[in-house]
Amino acid sequence: xxxxxxxxxxxxxxxxxxxxxxxxxxxxxxxxxxxxxxxxxxxxxxxxxxxxxxxxxxxxxxxxxxxxxxxxxxxxxxxxxxxxxxxxxxxxxxxxxxxxxxxxxxxxxxxxxxxxxxxxxxxxxxxxxxxxxxxxxxxxxxxxxxxxxxxxxxxxxxxxxxxxxxxxxxxxxxxxxxxxxxxxxxxxxxxxxxxxxxxxxxxxxxxxxxxxxxxxxxxxxxxxxxxxxxxxxxxxxxxxxxxxxxxxxxxxxxxxxxxxxxxxxxxxxxxxxxxxxxxxxxx
Length: 283
Ligand code: NAP
Fold this sequence. Notes:
Elements: E1 3-5, E2 12-14, H1 27-42, E3 47-49, H2 58-67, E4 75-80, H3 87-100, E5 106-111, H4 119-131, E6 135-141, H5 145-154, E7 160-166, H6 178-185, E8 188-192, H7 206-217, H8 222-230, E9 236-238, H9 245-252, H10 261-270
Parallel strand pairs: 3-4, 4-5, 5-6, 6-7, 7-8, 8-9
Antiparallel strand pairs: 1-2
Helix pairs in contact: 1-2, 1-9, 3-4, 7-8, 7-10
The structure holds NADP nicotinamide-adenine-dinucleotide phosphate.
C-alpha cells in the first residue's frame, strides 16, 4: 500500500485507510467486521477512521479489538461530536474515546462537523490535548473554506493537520477551492464516503459505464478505478468502509497503479464538477 506525507506533518500515511461507520451489529456481524479490518491492516490500510458517534461508542470498542497488539502500526483517528465540543467536553470526550479504543493516544482528533460552541474554545481544548500527549495532531471535518480558515486563525500553538470531507465521483465540489487551499496550507485532505455511502454508480448508468470501461483497460474493477481517481491528486487520502473481507481486498487494489491523463479526463467529463456556488456536501 503506497503512503504519502500527511500534509505538513510529513507523517507517512497510507493513501487508502479504513472507515468504520455502521460497523456495529450482532455479534457475528461484528466478528466479521473485526476480521475484515484486520485484513485491511495486513494489506497496509493502517489509517483507521472512527468517531465517538459511531454506534454511540460501540465502534471504538470494536476498533480496539482490531488494533490490539498492533497499535504502533496504526494511524488512529477519532472525532468529537459537536454537541460535546466545549473546552472541557472535548477533553472528556477524547479521554473516553481513548479508553474505549484501549489506546494511550490518538494520532489525529477531529471536530466531526462545525459546532455551536465557539471554534476558538474547541481548538483551545485540542491544543491542550496535544500538549498533554493525548493526541498527536488536530483536525476538523466537514469544514468549508471560510470555517477552515477560522479554525486555523484561532489556533495559537499548533497547526491544523487535516480536513475530512465528502469526496466521491458524484460529489467533486472540493476540487474547486477547498482542496487547492488545503494543499497550499499543508492540510491533509481525507475524502470520506468514496463510494457515495450508498448508490455507487451502476454500470447501467452513463457514468458507471464510462467508469467500467476505464477500469477494464487496467484489468481493475470500477471501485478500484474510483479509488484511484479520488486519490490522483497530491495531498489526498481516502477511507472506504468495508465489513467484508473480499471488499477490503478489492479496495486495497485501488492504488499502486496510475490512470493515464486521458482516462482521468474521461472520468472528469463523465462525473463533472458542480457549479461554483455549490455548498460543501455532507452526509
Ligand atoms: P463508503 O465507504 O462510500 O461505502 C461503504 C459501502 O460500500 C458499504 O456498504 C460497503 O459494504 C460497500 N463496499 C465497500 N467496498 C466495496 C466493494 N469493494 N464492493 C462492493 N461494495 C463495497 O461509505 P461510508 O461508510 O459512508 O464512508 C467511509 C468512511 O468515511 C466511514 O465509514 C467513516 O469512517 C467516514 N465518514 C466520515 C464522515 C464525517 O462526517 N466525517 C461521514 C461519512 C463517513 P460492506 O460494508 O458490506 O463491505
